[in-house]
Amino acid sequence: MIGISPKALALGAIVSLTASAAMAHGYRSGALSIQHPWSRETAVGQAVGGGFLTITNSGDREDRLISGTTPVAAEVQLHTMTMDGGVMRMRQVTGGIVVPTKGSVELKPGGYHIMFMGLRRQLRQGERFPVTLRFQRARSVTVQFAVQPVTSTGPMESSHAGH
Ligand SMILES: [Cu+2]
Question: What CATH number does residue 135 fall under?
Answer without folding.
Answer: 2.60.40.1890
